[in-house]
Amino acid sequence: MKSRYFMRSLLIGIVLAVVLNFVTLPYYVTRPGDAQELRPLVSVEGGDEDEGSFMLTTVKMGKANIFTYAFAKVSEYQNIFPINQIRAEDETDEEYNYRQLHMMESSKETAIKIAYEKAGKEVELVSKGVYVFSVKKGLAAEGKLDIGDRITHIDGKETATAEELMEVVGEKSIGDTIELTYDRDEEEKTTSITLGEHPEDPDRAGLGISLLTDYEITMDPPITINSAQIGGPSAGLMFSLEIYNQLLDEDISKGYDIAGTGAINEKGEVLRIGGISQKIVAADNSGVDIFFAPNEKGAEGSNYQEALVAAEDINTSMKIVPVDTFEDAVEYLEQLETKSE
Predict the structure, then answer these.
(1) Residue 326's pLDDT is what?
(2) What is the pTM of this model?
(3) Pfam families recorded for this chain (predicted)?
């Protein structure tokens, strides 16, 4: 009798566990991914093979269920985020993935420009406009702008890149009004928007939108980058280093396995990203020698400082190197001794 009761309870428990595994919570869980070598993904025509490698680092993310949520609660390098911190309330998973992939495309084009210019190769990057990729509910731009609008001017001044537009907004105060000119369905429109709080900093003015510069690029020699399954802009720095290395005769990796993270803009500046502690863990698990981290000009709580804390916590021998620009990374590598066998 007891045996039958036990088996019935066990069966019910298994069925319940299976069901709960497929019931998602309104959260995402992120955890360390891995460090992926870029050479198989990037091919510059005539590029050389190198002894070392440049690697991008990833963070794995998925919708939480009761089990992954509970495990993340007690795991130091797993983080839990409400869905509205990852994607807009009315944004589907497909739209979110689409946005991430387009951000990667923009990041790749910028990385190509930076690397080719540094190597003295022919390259031209032309901005075709700044696209709105999301509009957050309840914030300044709601009802004024839509996803897909292409912004061309702010206060009558041409806006070539997302960074330029954000710089102008960043110089203003909450309550200031700006005028935006944009294209929607091949028709030019103008709207006035009173700036509200920035969604990530209530002391700053913001529009409550995500932006992406739409670039068109030509270069010589030709290059192929296969990044179909990689989303977001955070691999920009590492793509630029891999491309630059293939354009040169020498191997600037000096035989080391080098990882890192950081978006890169058209000025070659390395920008802050999320999840750097998890990327430090991912790089260490992959046996990386050197890790480049955005320094943010030494700002308090910078990615570099976060990386140092994580590196010390996991007791890694990996060298953490702060960089503000692509040039910083190249200069560090040029001064590096070749790795001994």
Answers:
(1) 97
(2) 0.76
(3) Lon_C, PDZ_2
